[in-house]
Amino acid sequence: MPTQTHQHRFWAGPSLARLAHPAAVVLARGLLLGAIALNAGVLPAAASQNTPALSTSDAATGPRDNASASAAVVAQPAPAPALRLANFGQEVPSTESRKLADWVVDSGNNGNLPFMVIDKREARVFMFDAQGQLRGATAALLGLAVGDHSVPGIGERKLSSIRPDERTTPAGRFVASLDRDIHGHEVLWVDYDTALSLHRVVKGHPRERRAERLASPSPLDNRISFGCINVPVKFYESVVSPSFTGTNGIVYILPETRSAHEVFGSYDVQDASRAQASARVAPAAGPAAR
Q1: Among 3.40.50.300, 3.40.640.10, 2.40.440.10, 1.10.8.60, what is the CATH number of 95-274?
Q2: What are the φ and ψ backbone dihedral angles of 275, each rounded to 5 degrees?
Q3: Would you list the domain boundaries of the chain?
Q4: Which candidate, 254, 253, 233, 235, places its Cα nearest to that of 243?
């Protein structure tokens, strides 16, 4: 039979254990619930921090490898600028006249002044405003001889001393203005030093039939003057004089023994535009870099 001491020790252990067990369970449960709550709050946050973010571009376009495998992108050509050309209205000029007038407008060679194109081969005059809009066109009488130069000193010589082969209308670019001739008549001085002017048709000698030549549909009989340009009276008074009143203008006389490029340094606007359009088309780009 156990002693009292032994009984105290025997019952003390179990009694304390029974008393301590509910508290331990509560404490353990509390710790467990706290751990669960902690894990619920921390672990998802940590997981979200360690997970790589998906960018908007990746989401929209898919994996990078797929993007790099896409077909090469072909560069689209820039839109061609609108051509700046002369407006001939209902007139049908020669190719040379059209190309020169287009170049004047495209290059701005006229310096924002009214300008005139004289086609010697076709014996035609075209009057434009500063923007290249046609104001009028007409037939013209020109120098008897074929040639693009004036004889040196011809402006100081008497008409009677000028030989037929010297009666040329020179080609070139001239700054022209209205003024009076020695008879007091208004004329358009194209080149004062060489006495080159554009004026109303003069009667001349009856056998020259200047008025009839102007009215003829063929340009072959329009070479008769000493070098000046003769135009119908109505055209001079209604087109030429108003166009040059109060301002200078530019007169371009096309050559007949040389090219327009040699004389003016001009270019074909249409050809230049096509070349620029071809240059704007870029080659296809290679695969995108990784």
Answers
A1: 2.40.440.10
A2: -65, -40
A3: 1-45, 95-274
A4: 235
| Residue-level pLDDT at 32 | 43
Distance of CA 235 to the CA centre of its chain: 35
pLDDT at 6: 41
Residue 56 to residue 80: CA distance in whole angstroms:
36
Distance CA(19)–CA(13), nearest Å, equals 10
Q: Above pLDDT 90, what percent of the chain?
A: 62
pLDDT computed for residue 268 by the predictor: 95
pLDDT in tens, 155-207: 999 999 999 999 999 999 999 999 999 999 999 999 999 999 999 999 888 89
> In the chain, which stretches have pLDDT less than 50?
1-28, 30-63, 67, 69, 71, 286-290
Neighbour-count burial for 4-27, b at 16+ CB within 10 Å, e otherwise: eeeeeeeeeeeeeeeeeeeeeeee
**Closest C-alpha to 104, from 258, 256, 257, 252:** 252
Q: Where are the beta strands (DSSP E) in 184-260?
A: 186-191, 196-200, 223-225, 229-231, 249-253
